[in-house]
Amino acid sequence: MPAAFAALTYGLAFLAATIAFKKNRNTVFWYLIGAVGGIAFGAVYAAMRNLAGDDANMAALVKTGLTYSWIGPILATIIVGVLPKQDDPNAHHGDEHDDHHASYLNAKKGVNSWIVTLDHKRIGLMYLGTVLVFFFTAGMFAVLLRTELWTPGELYIGPETYNRFFTLHGAIMVFLVIIPSVPAALGNFVIPLQLGAKDVAFPKLNLMSLYIFWYGSSIALTTLVAGGVDTGWTFYTPYSVKSDGAVIMMTLSAFILGFSSILTGLNFIVTIHKLRAPGMTWFRIPLFIWGMYATSIIQVMATPVLAITLLLLIVERSVGIGIFNPQLGGDPVLFQHFFWFYSHPAVYIMILPGMAVQSELIAAGTHKRVFGYSFVAFSSLAIAFISFIVWGHHMFVSGQSELVSMIFSFLTFLVAIPSGVKVFNWIATMYKGSIAWNTPMMWAFNFLFLFTIGGLTGLYLGTLSTDVHLHDTYFVVAHFHYVMMGGTLMTFVGGIFYWWPKITGKMFNDGLGVLSALVVFVGFNLTFFTQFFFGSQGMPRRYYQYIEQFQTGHQFSTVGAYILLAGFLIALYALVDSLRRGEPAPDNPWGMTTMEWTHTATPPVEHNFLDQPVCDRGPYAFDHDEE
Ligand code: HEM
Ligand SMILES: [Cu+2]
After folding, report:
1. Does the predicted TM-score (pTM) go above 0.90?
2. SS3 for 598?
3. CB distance 129 to 137 below 8 Å
4. Ligand 2 centre from 308 Cα, in Å?
């Protein structure tokens, strides 16, 4: 198994290196350095394990060395990612002129022109494709889990498999789908266009972030064949130190993905500060940009904490130095503090982009200036800052002091204020607007309704007395699905439909899009609303078996999951169908006012704008409104 794994990762790395070689001849050198470094790392690591007592024989040592030697190619590819592109002597002369007016999709051709592209639009699209593949992969696990829960006992998989499935489902959905969905995929495509910029501030860094993302995610996928992980996506100690699953591989993957997230955030912050079109003051940037700005700040500030936490866990597992293990003087609860210090802000890394898209969808769907622009903008920032001081609400029953719990409980309620401000502003925007009942708007309605339920149920969990009862039950499962899936994912899909004509130059079948949103809405509520009931009646989360009393609830939930699947398949079909036979899209199909619609062709040209656009009004200055 380790050998097969090493072969696979080396194969991937080799592929990347070959492609990168075309980009820059120095690649070979760096690749060699990386590979040697990786093997050295593997050997050191194996030796450390040997010291720690397990695998105390030569064969095991070699095996372990080999398994971890793929760190090298990762390093190599990262280095190659930042190297400048060497000018290809043949490329520039001939067709330069024609390319200028061709769309970004046709300006250059061939697989290679995608893999080494520096165009933020193409990079965004590659993220989008990857994220969608992971979404359906993790979704498949969800359906398999819900199927098993049809009966109180075993239906078709054993308890170990069940544990591995829910871990993979959660870890893939959080780290490979929700977190990169709006920022990396849609943000990459849209941010420079909305700002009137040619690209992001650091295009090479952007490409490198994509490579890192691919590496991290390919390692996550390898855990599938390397035995899986059974700790849950939170990797709580002490179990994650002892479990014999591929914990190191999975946490290493999250560690690597973290860097992709940090670098993307950094790139966006600089882009928003430095590359706004002339005349575009801070109060003329679209609300999508404000949301992405707040998200990026959290990404840059909180993600390193996760990285360090996971690194500590890896060290603890491999050499047992006693950080989280009480037998060696460590403290397992410390892990929870570290983990949630990142992961609570991370839930806002997930929801702020959703809110960001929501503002655009509502403005486009009602043709009105978003009510209380500066409140919406500043509540994004407020949410970003408060999110750092509430992590203790995940630990009310962990044994932390009562005083601390009370303080965290109080602070948690503060987050509800800016969240509420936003919801009320969106509703006020729609008030007396002429609402377009089209696909993007239907997904925006899904968000509005489901996110509100998610946020309100958060208050029950933030209240000390009720959380003691609800903690670790299906009530929590329902809560976070309402916010993460009912919130972020709905606007992600809504955003895909909304920007689809700009991205592809094709219109989609609006009837199908509306239908998909409705089916998802029904399936979603059937799946998760029921969980509030049996959760509050005491059904614990992550349990493989349950008492018969809960069967009806679980069955509703399972049927809902299949309806949900059908809804997403309809949405996918609508998009694929549009690629095949969609009508050509006009430049501004929604009659929207932001620059990606008013100042670019559909699809945009390679460098976005033929001339530098100038901004002379606010983002939502519809004709009938005064600015
Ligand atoms: C008004 C806003 C919110 C409040 C007051 C709130 C409160 C809480 C509380 C107190 C818990 C801990 C429950 C427990 O385990 O006993 C919790 C869990 C959770 N919340 Fe929220 N929440 C809010 C919004 C969100 C948002 C926007 C997201 C994500 C987009 C989110 C994602 C989660 C997740 C993933 C968990 C469970 C983590 C786990 O144990 O696996 N929450 N929430
Ligand atoms: Cu939290």
Report:
1. no
2. helix
3. no
4. 19
Q: How far apart are CA 476 and CA 21, in angstroms?
A: 49
Nearest to residue 493, comparing CAs of 448, 460, 447? 447
Distance CA 500, CA 577 (A): 12
CA dist 243 and 229 (Å) reads 8
Q: What number of other Cβ atoms are within 10 A of residue 607's Cβ?
A: 15
- Angle at 562 (CA atoms; ends 560, 564), nearest 5 degrees: 70
| Contact indicator for 603, 502 with CB cutoff of 8 Å | yes
DSSP state letters, 9-34: HHHHHHHHHHHHHHH-TTHHHHHHHH
Question: Which residue has its alpha carbon closest to ligand 1 atom 22?
Answer: 458
Amino acid (1-letter code) at residue 127 = Y
CB 24 within 8 A of CB 83: yes
Q: Which of 54, 135, 206 is nearest to 565 (CA)?
A: 135
Give the span between the Cα atoms of 544 and 561, in whole angstroms.
17
Q: Which ligand is located closest to the Cα atom of residue 349?
A: 1
Written as six digits, the tokens of 151 are 């009966």
175-210 burial by CB neighbour count: b if 16+ within 10 A, else e?
A: bbbbbbbbbbbbbbbbbbbbbbbbbbbbbebbbbbb
Tens of pLDDT, residue by residue over 530-562, are 999 999 999 999 999 999 999 999 999 999 999
Q: Which of 449, 302, 453 is nearest to 390 (CA)?
A: 302
Report CA(213)–ligand 2 centroid distance (Å): 25
**Half-sphere exposure (Cβ direction) of 509: Cα atoms closer than 13 Å:** 16
Is any ligand 1 atom within 6 A of the Cβ of residue 355? no
8 Å CB contact between 195 and 272: yes
Rounded Cα distance, 523 and 136, in Å? 16
Q: List, in sequence order, every residue forming a beta bridge with 148; answer none if it has no partner.
A: none
Predicted pLDDT at 94: 43
Reading the block at residue 455, the tokens are: 């946020």
Residue type, 541: R
Interval between CA 334 and ligand 2 midpoint (Å): 16
DSSP conformation letters of 177-212: IIHHIIIIIIIHHHHHHHHT-SS-S-HHHHHHHHHH
447 pocket-lining for ligand 1 (C-beta < 6 Å):
no
Flag whether pLDDT at 71 surpasses 60: yes
Q: Which residue has the tokens 């009720």?
A: 466
The alpha carbon torsion through 270, 273, 276, 281 (nearest 10 deg) reads: 170
User: CA-CA-CA-CA torsion for 558, 353, 207, 69, nearest 10 degrees?
Assistant: -50
Question: For 322-345, what is each residue's pLDDT tens digit?
Answer: 899 888 889 999 999 999 998 999
The minimum-distance atom of ligand 1 relative to the CA of 178 is 30
d(CA 594, CA 138): 34
